Amino acid sequence: ATLSSVSYNPGGIQTVTVMIYQQPGIACTIGLHKLEFDTGTTAVSQFYRSAFHRATIGDRKTSAIYWETSRPIVKFTNLNVPCSVSEMPLTFTLRNGYTLEDIFGSAINYAAFTTNDNTGDCPLGTFPTSL
Asked: Strands 13-21, 2-9: parallel, antiparallel or unpaired by DSSP?
């Protein structure tokens, strides 16, 4: 995954697009089900809970955004990106004037899962919160 674009709508509302792509040289056999971002602490997860909304994966709306309060994680589930798709944009907006930098600092650590639990292939990575 990589940050593709960040824009600000009137009123300072941040819209973010994260481009999800297949890793070169790794055969895709299942597709992508879930993407998790590490917030750093559970206090951050609790404070910014519900900050993300209006998410789309490709051209499909998704409301499957979960802020965990027992782990420092926000996750997008039910992505269902098939192996036949080499790139897919995940776009969402942030409420209350929050920014990615407010929540994650200068970078987002992420994990991508092929299953709906914490098993399966799970590539890890980091991308900056600004372009």
From this structure: antiparallel
Q: What is the 3-state secondary structure (H, E, C) of 89-113?
A: EEEEEECCCCCHHHHHCCEEEEEEE
Give dist(CA 102, CA 99) in Å, integer: 5
**pLDDT tens string 24-79:** 777 777 888 889 999 999 999 999 998 999 999 999 998 889 999 899 999 999 88
Strand order in the sheet with 73-76: 65-67, 73-76, 34-38, 107-113, 124-128
Nearest Cα to 2, choosing from 23, 16, 18? 18
Whether the Cβ atoms of residue 1 and residue 35 lie closer than 8 Å to each other: yes
Q: CA 94, CA 14: separation in Å to the nearest integer?
A: 6
pLDDT at 66: 93
Could you give the count of Cα atoms lying within 13 Å of 81 in the half-sphere of its Cβ?
27
Of 112, 113, 92, the C-alpha closest to 103 is: 92
3-class SS shares of the chain: helix, strand, coil, % to 5:
10, 45, 45
